[in-house]
Amino acid sequence: MKILGLVCSPREGGNTEIMVREALDEAARRGAETELVLLAGKNITPCQACEACMAEGVCAVDDDMQAIYSKLVEADGILFGTPVYFINVTAQAKAVIDRSFALMMTGRLRGKAAAAVVVARRVGAGQVLSLLYTWFAVHGMHVAGGAIGYGREKGEVREGPGGSPGLTALDEARGAGKNVVRTIERLAR
Ligand SMILES: Cc1cc2nc3c(=O)[nH]c(=O)nc-3n(C[C@H](O)[C@H](O)[C@H](O)COP(=O)(O)O)c2cc1C
Q: Is residue 189 part of a domain?
């Protein structure tokens, strides 16, 4: 069972990375093989609407997204992490979402389990979570829940609350890791 954690923050070592690492650690404790990919410092351009992918699902833009396509396809489960930027995902996350159109053409994400990990300072996390759930569903992925963490400066999320009453941010992250593993296990039965 392979689980890919994608961190769509431009800030290395930030709150989203902390949350996704926590979720992946929980998944690993439950037997998953895990991989963390940071988008910080990567060159992923926006979709150019060239429609090259319409024929065979292969994106013509040669940048760092090509390696991410392979990792997404190989994974059984995806933990998609993004901070909230102006009540939305980051530009890095949006580039991945738009470029995932190429994978939709050939249904290569269909049947995978996916959970969202969203970090905010204050407002917009629920909205971003819903948006990501819809993106998962459009690909035919199984929504395995999500985690919200609150924090602003790097590391604040370690002490920050989660989105659910009584849960810390890191409790929620572990929950997302657990749910992705459980969903994959159920699908395999
Ligand atoms: C450009 C920008 C826009 C942001 N917009 C929001 C927002 O709309 N709502 C919010 O609660 N936090 C917002 N934040 C705060 C980040 O979500 C928060 O600092 C988060 O912890 C960053 O995650 P990271 O450490 O993984 O980069 C924004 C931060 C930046 C840099």
A: no
